Each structure stands twice: as structure tokens, then as C-alpha cells.
Amino acid sequence: MLDSRLAADELDRRALALGTAREQRRPIDPLTDALPELAIDDAYAIAQRGVTARIAGGARLVGHKIGLTSVAVQQQLGVTEPDYGALLDVMEIDSGATIELVDSRVADWRIRLADTVADNASSAGFVLGGRRRPLGELDVSAVVVELWRGGEVVERGTSSAVLGDPCAAVAWLANALAPFGAALEAGQVVLSGACTRMVAVLPGDDFRGTFGGLGEVRLTVAGPDR
Fold first, then answer.
1. What secondary structure letter does DSSP report for 54?
2. Does residue 59 form part of some domain?
3. pTM for the complete prediction?
């Protein structure tokens, strides 16, 4: 386990603030506004407290997500390295579902790396397709990805944008978990990171993500009357 620079009560307080923001759908100022030198180790400690609280409330850990793996997303958010967060069963969304997405708990995405780390890698929910393929059946670094909003392609990329190879991102995650006494477990879901920029969503938007050779996932963002 890595050493924390902040006192335990301070870590608890920041984790509680992020948890309250998630529950109330009310974003807060970046933690780094009050703690400009917030260390990454402390940010992960805050995130872990948030995950532990949700598990204590009945959620179950089902995997991990890696974020900020592509240059496009790093440039979009002004960060320079990947991060990771936990995936809980309550975050999984059925493909084709109508949902409400809650993204960063930090207002207006005014985040530094430590802010998104503390916020469980800015996790909200995840959608999985129903088709699984063995790694040996496809070139995982050459999957063409398109994000559609309605009938328009709004982002397009290739899986090689994920640290050159999504498998390299998974290896990075395994090494990043080790200092915290954690490891990848059989059966867990791992999201290796986006290969396109993020796009804003509006109530009622219909999205479809297509993954060449793998299939597609769909979701509709809930409108105000849903």
C-alpha cells in the first residue's frame, strides 16, 4: 500500500463530498482548488474510500476501468497519463436501455489528474455487448470504433489509440493495482480505455457504439420526463 500524505479524516471528508455529489447529482468544485498539491496516492486513497462505502451499501466489485489512455482524451482534459477506477455491478447498464448518465462529480469537467483519480476515474456507468470473442480471433489493436448520435457519426477511432494496444493498457492496470495490494481477478470486466474523444450528451440523445468485428452497444439518454 502506498503512503498517504493527508490525514485520514481529510481523506474521509473528501470521499464523502464526492459521494454526496454523486448521490445528489450536484457537482462540486475540483478537489485541487482547495488542495492544489493533491498527490496521486492520496487521490487513489480517496477513490478507494468511495468504492468501499458503496460496497458497504450493497454494491459489488465486478472489474476495473482504465481512463485517459488515448492522446485525444488526454488533450481534451489536459492530463498526461492514464488512471483507473473500479467498476461496480450497480454501474452496469443494459445495451439498448434508457438511462440517466451522471459523469464527473466535478463541475464543468474542471479537473486535473488528481481530481479524476479521486472521482474513481470519472466513472458513471458502463454498457457491455452480448457477444464475446477470444483474443486469438481478432487483432485487438486494429478494431475500428465509431460513436453515433442518431444518424450521425460524431467520433471515430481505432483501438491502437489505447496506449498502442489495449492489451498494453491492461498490463498497465495490473502494475498500477499492485502497490495498493489489489490484482485483476478471473471473471472481472476490464475497460481498457477510450480510443476517441468524449462527447457531450443531451436529454433524449440516442447513441450507438460500433466495434468492427465485435458488435455494437446502444443507449438512450433519459429525457426530463422519464
1. H
2. yes
3. 0.85
